[in-house]
Automatic annotation (TrEMBL):
This is RNA polymerase. GO terms for molecular function: DNA binding; sigma factor activity. The keyword Transcription applies. It comes from Kitasatospora phosalacinea. SUPFAM superfamilies: Sigma2 domain of RNA polymerase sigma factors, Sigma3 and sigma4 domains of RNA polymerase sigma factors. CDD domains: Sigma70_r4 (cd06171). The keyword DNA-binding applies.
Length: 172
């Protein structure tokens, strides 16, 4: 059996930053992202496997993170029916440059449903094809296309642009 503690240490040392970024894109919150990474690592390493390879472990951890994110959202949705969330108006501070763009993007991502957000992150951050996203989420390609279309439309409306991403297999 492989030394799982060594594999865990190496995975965190070499891919920890990327796992945290992925978690942040899913959750939109640094603390939740760190919790998501830790929870996924605990779940994956709770059952050591003989043929673990470092290259495959990251995929297992990312898949576990995605599953946990979607599970947590479903749980929150149930509670949201009992306790309505009230968002106060945001102060329109005059930010400029990349920081403001990043904040606007994160705010727009927060407005997406978990399925839309997962599809957008997997398609454009993970750079998966529509078929790859469908496979990862365990749904049909048509469902992924619908979530991507709706998600991109909502992002475009929130960001004040109607630009669509290029179609898969399309030109530059």
């Amino acid at each position: 059996m492989a030394d799982w503690t060594g594999l865990l240490s190496e995975l965190v040392a070499t891919r920890g930053t990327e796992l945290n970024r992925y978690g942040f894109l899913l959750t939109g919150d640094r603390a939740e992202a760190a919790d998501l990474v830790q929870e996924a690592l605990v779940r994956v390493f709770a059952r050591p496997h003989r043929s673990w390879e470092l290259g495959r472990l990251e995929g297992y951890v990312r898949r576990t993170m995605l599953n946990r994110f979607l599970d947590q959202h479903r749980r929150r949705q149930r509670y949201a029916l009992l306790v309505p969330k009230v968002a106060g108006p945001e102060a329109d501070a005059d930010h400029s440059g990349p920081v403001a763009d990043r904040l606007r993007l994160l705010t727009a991502l927060d407005a997406l449903s978990p399925a839309q957000r997962a599809c957008v992150v997997l398609r454009y951050y993970e750079d998966l094809s529509v078929a790859g996203v469908a496979d990862r989420l365990g749904c049909r390609e048509g469902t992924v296309k619908r979530h991507l279309s709706d998600g991109l439309a909502r992002l475009g409306a929130a960001l004040g642009t109607d630009r669509r991403a290029p179609e898969e297999g399309g030109g530059a």
